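Figure 3 (text version): structure tokens given as input.
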């Protein structure tokens, strides 16, 4: 299998991802593309000198010609999110960056290429790449709410003192302010959330408020980190590495990937990208899973969808 990954953008997220992939065994070649070629060359050289400690692979700086040999191209390039700036506020600035990237990539794309968008606002930019690049929707994906879901698992783990790996839950919709926590399909150690809470009894009549606080913690996590240190990059590097691992190892893992929505919301809102649980394989998205969400959660997804669709229409990128 082709295990070559190209990373476009060597900022904090791109370089952290490259380093995370360097420590993996499932990638055989990492190519870093950045306008600052010396920075890309320096990072590649720095990581290559650590190869005796990890599995053998090639790490290099490159250009868009390298796209033709890649299985996955990861787009991390873009302007940084400022303190207090929403992900949607970033959009107009990052579309200009993406126009240049897309035109540079076009001569080298091939039928098996998977493009993974990480730059925020990830849902809108994933849709934009899909409309501009011409590949099937299953091969144009966004990192979506994979990180948000991990943050929710971590928050629940800390609250319940149960290993996060034994907690199953999803954050759905926009990777941003209108995201939805899917409490109705959450389980802890095989028990539904409701049954676990009944057995625990700690929250009692404060359970709803506690769940709301956990979700608020997740929704505001990026803003909190940006305020404290200027940017987020470690956790997103790990979450994108998990997505790449799933694709290259054809694992068919279920992840909350940002994908094209057609009739998943019963046709109420369609033709946009946001996150739902999907089965992910070496060829991209195999299927979208349709779970039994609560009425409140479903209505939240509709509001999230309408918010994203409104932005698409206002910017005339449909």
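Below: residues designed for each position.
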């Amino acid at each position: 299998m082709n295990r070559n990954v190209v990373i476009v953008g060597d900022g904090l997220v791109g370089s952290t991802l490259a380093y995370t992939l360097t420590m993996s065994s499932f990638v055989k070649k990492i190519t870093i593309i950045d306008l600052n070629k010396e920075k890309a060359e320096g990072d590649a050289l720095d990581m290559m000198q650590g190869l005796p400690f990890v599995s053998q692979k090639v790490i290099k700086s490159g250009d868009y010609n390298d796209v033709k040999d890649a299985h996955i191209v990861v787009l991390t390039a873009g302007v940084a999110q400022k303190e207090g700036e929403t992900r949607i506020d970033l959009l107009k600035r990052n579309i200009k960056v993406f126009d240049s990237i897309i035109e540079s990539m076009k001569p080298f794309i091939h039928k098996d290429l998977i493009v993974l968008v990480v730059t925020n606002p990830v849902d809108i930019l994933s849709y934009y790449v899909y409309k501009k690049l011409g590949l099937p929707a299953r091969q144009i994906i966004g990192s979506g709410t994979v990180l948000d879901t991990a943050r929710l698992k971590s928050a629940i783990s800390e609250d319940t003192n149960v290993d996060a790996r034994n907690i199953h839950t999803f954050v759905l919709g926009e990777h941003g302010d209108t995201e939805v926590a899917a409490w109705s399909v959450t389980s802890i150690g095989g028990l539904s959330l409701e049954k676990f809470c009944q057995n625990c009894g700690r929250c009692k009549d404060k359970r709803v408020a506690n769940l709301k606080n956990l979700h608020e913690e997740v929704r505001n996590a990026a803003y909190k980190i940006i305020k404290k240190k200027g940017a987020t990059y470690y956790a997103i590097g790990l979450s994108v590495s998990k997505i790449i691992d799933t694709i290259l190892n054809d694992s068919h893992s279920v992840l909350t990937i940002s994908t094209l929505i057609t009739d998943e919301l019963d046709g109420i809102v369609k033709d946009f990208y946001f996150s739902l649980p999907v089965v992910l394989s070496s060829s991209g998205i195999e299927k979208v899973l349709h779970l039994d969400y609560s009425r409140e959660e479903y209505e939240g997804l509709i509001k999230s969808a309408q918010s994203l669709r409104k932005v698409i229409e206002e910017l005339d990128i449909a």
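The chain is about 40% helix and 20% strand.
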